[in-house]
Each structure stands twice: as C-alpha cells, then as structure tokens.
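From the pipeline queue, job 12 of 40. The input is one protein chain; the requested action is below.

Action: predict structure.
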Amino acid sequence: MKVKCQLVKINALVDYKEGLELQEKAFQLVHQEQTQGIILLLQHKHVFTVGTQGGQDNLLMSKQQLERLGITVFETRRGGNITYHGPGQLVAYPILNLNYLKKDTRWYINQLEEVIIQTLKAYGITAGRKPKYVGVWIGDKKIAAIGVGMKKWITMHGFAFNIQVQKKYFTMINPCGITEFGIASLDDYIAEVNDDDVIRHVQERFSSVLDIELNEVTLDHFKGRSNVEYIKS
C-alpha cells in the first residue's frame, strides 16, 4: 500500500521564518500520525541560509550591505553550508515519515536528487550527480541544492531548484562553500519557464520516485488543522 501524503502549494512569496513555522507544524502533524507525510512547495523572499556545516565565512558581503538590499541571513539546522533562496527558485519541504518508506538518510537524499533529475529529463535536459557534492548538476553547474534535517526518522528541509532565479545573488556567497563550479537555472535551457508546469512535473516525480500517493490540500486547510505546538527545526 502506498504511503499517503498531503501536498500544499503556496503561491505567495514566503518569509523564511514563516517557512520554518510551516515545516514545524507539518512535523507535528506527521509525528502525531495525523498524516504520513506533507510536502510544501513554495518560493521564498530573498534570504541566505546557513546550515549545520557553517557558511558565515562564505558570505562575501557584510550584513549591513545585505540589509540595504533587503536580504536576511538565517541560521538553520538543515545539513550543508550557505545557500540562497529567493524568487524564481522552487523550494520543496517534504516532511515525510521514513518509518513508512526507508530509514536511510543517504537513500532519501538520493531520492530527492532523483526527483529533480527526472523533472529535468521531462524537459529534455540531462542532469546528474557529482561525486563529493550533494545536489543536482548539469555538467559543472549546480541547478538544485539539497539540505535535510531529520528527527525520529521524520524529514525536514529539502531542496531548492533554480527555475528562473536571478544569479546575481549567488555572487554574494560561495554557494554551499563551493568556488570552482557555477550555478544553473532551468531558464538557461528552455525558452519559457511556466511555474505551474514545473510544479506539476515535480509533483508527479515525487509520486513516482518515492512511490507515494499525493493528495493536494489548500494552505488554509493545512493551517486550520489541529492546534499543535511548534518545535524548533
């Protein structure tokens, strides 16, 4: 029997702190077994996030300069180094109970990579993995960053997939601490990016790669569920 998960698509740009709160609520719902999984799909306002492997030393501008540009810096408990989130980048936060799938962190990260690889394949683009580096690559350019967190085999955080991102923001950091490779975006390879089309492909690949059943619910429905206390991610 397939694992049943809920899908929440958010159209408005989401502040990173609000995104964490949504993840925390989803975690509690999954932990309380009100659902076997929730996947949040959204785009963030401009933010640099620093993971558990550090990253402040890979920030190439002062916080004062960033404040003038309206960009925040947020330390979080996902894996990995520093990365950028912003408009034109599809972020997926799968909050999944791996007790129902496979209790293997490396397998799970591989599955997230495969969702992006198969999505790009639908556009006729060949992408893959690069030894020593987590994420999805087209040649020597990274098109999707992955950083996950996990507690009691319930996942948090996820991937950031560049679909029509403004690359100038990546020049303000060493993305993921990497200096020798570049950044790619879907609009580098296709003439016109349709967000709804990309989301449809990603949704379908989540279902097929992870072999799960996705049922879409509205954000209002998700927010209106049980009054749970947030945990800190």
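Job complete. Confidence is low (pLDDT under 50) at residues 226-233.
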